[in-house]
């Protein structure tokens, strides 16, 4: 696999929109051609090379290309947007819409990510070795189709409404989540190893939320079902015992929230 480096020269006050930073767009191009690609600073067209130094060598096919982004990208949107193949490593903390509409390939972020990462993701893998913002794996504003396939792993914490309108795939958060985890969820699985934010599963109709950490409360529209020794979902086993709640009954939902009994005895009916 060939490696191409994009090294940040600094960030403007007005955010950049750089959806060309992905193997699909850069494969088959010379470093000079890549530097001349158009990105946007607000509503102005600028060259990619104005903000990124291009080094290394591109591959003929996206599947054979690894892009490594180095430095400050805190004001750069849409890195990896609509990516379908190859690898993208970001050694920094990108702004909004990282990996939006991603359908394949792998993105690794060695930093934090902003809001709407992996928006409407339909395949591939995203690993965040830091914290994630709000609306991770969610639907675009006004849409009702969120993440449908793929894998997202967050090593730190995640914000509000992760998995909003989720239709499939898997999100794993090793830290804690904000409010409305899995809101409007209709399928898929969310695993939270830290604390679960309030109002989790609001209006969910199907799917599973597995919680190993502490959940201060659940919505009253979730009904206690039973205590089970372990959870098996799509050939994956999660050891418990877990307290199972079903809902959201306000939506006639049949989704499940599994709470580790050891950490959530206050939510077990007496």
Quick one: biggest sheet?
Answer: 13 strands, mixed
Counted beta strands: 17
Percent in strands = 25-35%
What's the rounded overall pLDDT mean?
Answer: 96
Q: Structural class of the secondary elements?
A: mainly beta
Task: Classify the oligomer.
Answer: single chain
Helix content: under 10%
Widest sheet: strand order? 5-1-6-8-9-10-11-12-13-14-17-16-15
Bulk shape: elongated
What string, H for helix and E for strand, traces the elements in order? Answer: EEHHEEEEEEEEEEEEEEE
Low-confidence stretches: none
Q: What is the count of helical runs? A: 2
For the termini, the CA-CA separation is 58 Å
Give the SSE layout:
Elements: E1 2-8, E2 16-17, H1 23-26, H2 31-35, E3 38-41, E4 44-47, E5 52-56, E6 65-70, E7 76-77, E8 87-91, E9 106-109, E10 125-128, E11 151-154, E12 167-173, E13 187-192, E14 208-211, E15 223-233, E16 236-247, E17 255-260
Parallel strand pairs: 1-6, 2-7, 6-8, 8-9, 9-10, 10-11, 11-12, 12-13, 13-14, 14-17
Antiparallel strand pairs: 1-5, 2-3, 3-4, 15-16, 16-17
Describe this structure in words.
The protein has 270 residues and is mostly beta strands. It has a domain at 112-267. It is 3% helix and 34% strand. The chain contains 2 helices and 17 strands. The chain has helices at residues 23-26, 31-35; strands at 2-8, 16-17, 38-41, 44-47, 52-56, 65-70, 76-77, 87-91, 106-109, 125-128, 151-154, 167-173, 187-192, 208-211, 223-233, 236-247, 255-260. The protein has a 13-stranded mixed beta sheet. The termini are far apart.
């Amino acid at each position: 696999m060939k490696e191409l480096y994009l090294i940040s020269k600094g960030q403007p006050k007005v955010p950049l929109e750089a959806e060309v930073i992905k193997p699909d767009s850069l494969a088959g191009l010379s470093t000079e051609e890549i530097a001349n690609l158009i990105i946007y600073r607000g509503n102005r067209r600028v060259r990619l090379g104005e903000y990124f130094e291009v080094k290394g060598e591109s591959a003929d096919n996206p599947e054979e290309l690894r892009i490594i982004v180095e430095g400050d990208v805190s004001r750069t949107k849409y890195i990896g947007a609509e990516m379908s193949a190859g690898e993208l490593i970001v050694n920094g903390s990108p702004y909004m819409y990282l990996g939006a509409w991603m359908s394949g390939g792998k993105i690794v972020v060695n930093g934090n990510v902003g809001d709407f990462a992996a928006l409407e993701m339909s395949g591939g893998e995203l690993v965040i070795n830091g914290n994630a913002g709000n609306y991770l794996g969610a639907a675009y504003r006004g849409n009702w189709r969120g993440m449908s396939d793929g894998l997202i792993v967050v090593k730190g914490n995640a914000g509000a409404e992760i998995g909003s309108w989720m239709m499939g795939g898997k999100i794993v958060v090793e830290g804690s989540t904000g409010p409305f985890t899995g809101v409007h969820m209709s399928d898929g699985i969310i695993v939270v190893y830290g604390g679960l934010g309030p109002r989790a599963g609001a209006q969910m109709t199907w799917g599973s939320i597995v919680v190993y950490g502490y959940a201060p409360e659940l919505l009253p529209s979730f009904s206690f079902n039973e205590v089970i020794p372990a959870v098996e979902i799509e050939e994956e086993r999660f050891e418990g015992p877990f307290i199972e709640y079903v809902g959201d009954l306000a939506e006639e939902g049949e989704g499940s929230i599994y709470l580790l009994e050891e950490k959530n005895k206050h939510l077990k009916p007496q």
